[in-house]
Amino acid sequence: xxxxxxxxxxxxxxxxxxxxxxxxxxxxxxxxxxxxxxxxxxxxxxxxxxxxxxxxxxxxxxxxxxxxxxxxxxxxxxxxxxxxxxxxxx
Length: 90
Prior knowledge:
The chain has 90 residues and is mainly beta. It has one helix at 46-51, and strands at 2-10, 19-26, 55-59, 79-86. A four-stranded antiparallel sheet has the order 2-1-4-3. Strand 1 and strand 2 (19-26) form a beta hairpin.
């Protein structure tokens, strides 16, 4: 088994809100993706990803970044991380 990871950044903290940004990594090595390589998101909402078999493994804390911290590394607000386990390239 291999792991696929999908990061979805949503309009707000609700799983049924619109996807505004995303990232995908394929641990099988069958596909490669790069930031900005698609004009449309893989799903309209986070809930749509769940309906397609993705498992939610983490959601960002419901905190907002304090003013003045714009240049510090931190989590993305409304970030949801999903995974799928698929057969690999063995």
